[in-house]
Structure formats: C-alpha cells, structure tokens
Amino acid sequence: MPALVAGIHVLLALNKDVDGRDKPGHDSGEVHSCLVRNAMSEDFLKNPLSLFEVRGKTAIVTGASGAFGALASKVLAGAGCNLVLAAGGADALKKVAAECEALAAKTEAVNLRPNTAANCDKIVEAAVKRFGGVDILVLASGINKVSKIVDQAPETFMEVIDVNVTQSWLMARAAGKQMLAQGRGGKVVFMSSARGLLGHPAGYTAYCASKSAIDGITKALGCEWGDTGITVNAIAPTVFRSPLTAWMYEDNERSTAVRKGFIARVPKGRLGEPSDLAGPLLFLASKASDFYTGHILYADGGYTAG
C-alpha cells in the first residue's frame, strides 16, 4: 500500500503544469478519485473468486431449451442466479426450468421466442415483474440450415439470419433499454461460433454470415455501451457435444472418420464438451470481465489459432 500511495502522488504531480496548475483537459480531483478507487479495489485480492460471484443476479436466457441455452441456464442456476428462461418449445422449457430449480434456482419460464419486439419486451417485463430487473442476458437462440448456395432457397437463408441475428439484436435492444434505465450496468453474452471467423465448404453460407454478423454486433454494441457499465461479449465455440452433434461422438466408421479429420485441426486434440463452455460463460457473466467488451471468446481448443 505505501508504494501505491507514492504512485498516486507521482501521477498527481504529472497532472500538473510546471507552475502547479492542472493541465488543460485534466481534473486532479477525477485523477485522485480514480486512483483511490483503484487502491481500494485491491480488496478483491483477499478473495479473488469473488470476482466470479453472480449469486442473486437476474439472468435472462433465450433459447433456453437448446443445447447451449440449457447449459447456460443450469450453470447460472448452480451459481445462484435468478433465471428468466425463454424458449418456444413448452415441454422442453419446463424440463430445463425443473432442472434449474433442482439446483435451488428461482425461475420464471416464458414460452416465447424473441422473434418480435413485442415478445422481447414481454420477456424483459417478466424479469422485472418477478425479480425486479435484469443483470445478465444470454442470447442462446440459434439454428443452422446446411445447403450449398445454389440449392438453398432465399427464404431458408433469411430464416437463419432472422433467428441468429435479428432475434438476438431485438432481445439485446429490449434488455439493453432496461439495463440502461436501471443504471447499474449489466452483462450481455451473445452466442457466436468459430464459423463467424472461418468458412466451411459444406454449405455454411447462411450460418457463417449469421455468426459474422453476431461478431460485428458484439463489437459495435460493446463500443456503443462502453461507458455505461454494460459489457457485451460473445462465446464462439467449435463443435461441442449436443443433440445436434452427438453423431460425431459415436463409435462407428463414419463418425470416427469425420471426428479424426476434424480433431487433426484442433491443437487440444479433442472435440468440445459442455463443461468447456461453462467457464467462459461464468467469466463473461460476472464482474471478472468488467474490463472486457466487444470481445469474441473462442472456446475451440485452439482451432482458430492454427
């Protein structure tokens, strides 16, 4: 602490002109307050894990019945969040809500997709009515329609863009209004993919375009809300175990061949597991990521590094 105090005095001195007056465009009071806050923030060293504490926070998860949405819901439930779970499939939504409640979480299930501005407003209203506000938004809705461009109907391309991009934008807009009104910051986590950065020869023009758009929104919104206390980031996995990718984990000739070819390009030497996404999610949903915004976090075993 003595060294830190000495550093504060040096920096305050550097903020002065040779005649002792504040330099133009600088306020010594602001500099002093900032440095004192930084000094006080050393308290986290007594319990670094407190940076990842989200207990009592209210999180909205869209696409809550999907692979990543269900995982995100249960991770946040186990961490002590209040949950507003939104999805279109009523039965699957009830199942996820029950699993979260088994982890001692309070839940509010909203059987709506974020496919209109009105629906998005209703999802946010449910969070405010039940829990008093919104602290975390996880945008887990998404689809993929694999087809070579000459064979894909324009309507199918637009459906992928609507679900993956437009609906995420609408939901971020609705939750963002509430977070800004609350004035206490917030956490927005988009679901991207390694395919937002890399192409794929198997007919991924719609999906790659949608995830590149998510990356762009993440960066732009991170800048737009940079001074509000709201952070905006994205998780971008490669293949991880889910109902859609379960076939790649099977022990048969086709799965083994495809898996072997893919793993050859993954430095970690394996496919992803749901637990590989849990840590990044908790990081981006907590105070630990307060200085990160507009960032795409690749949970891909090094796939995009090669």
Query: Main sheet, how many strands, which sense, barrel?
Result: 7 strands, parallel
Domain module count:
2
Low-confidence stretches: 1-26
Structural class comes to alpha/beta
Write the layout of secondary structure elements.
Layout: H1 2-14, H2 28-40, E1 58-62, H3 67-78, E2 82-86, H4 90-101, E3 107-110, H5 117-131, E4 136-139, H6 154-182, E5 186-191, H7 205-224, E6 230-237, H8 253-263, H9 275-285, E7 295-299
Parallel strand pairs: 1-2, 1-4, 2-3, 4-5, 5-6, 6-7
Helix pairs in contact: 1-2, 3-4, 3-9, 5-6, 6-7
Produce a short descriptive summary.
The chain has about 300 residues and is of the alpha/beta class. Helices cover about 45% and strands about 10% of the residues.
Descriptive account of the structure:
- The protein is an alpha/beta fold and 306 residues long.
- The protein has two domains: 2-46, no CATH class; 54-305, Rossmann fold.
- The chain has helices at 2-14, 28-40, 67-78, 90-101, 117-131, 154-182, 205-224, 253-263, 275-285; strands at residues 58-62, 82-86, 107-110, 136-139, 186-191, 230-237, 295-299.
- A seven-stranded parallel sheet has the order 3-2-1-4-5-6-7, sandwiched between helices.
- α3 (67-78) crosses α9 and α6 runs parallel beside α7.
- The chain is globular.
- 37% of the residues are buried.
- The model is unreliable at 1-26 (pLDDT under 50).
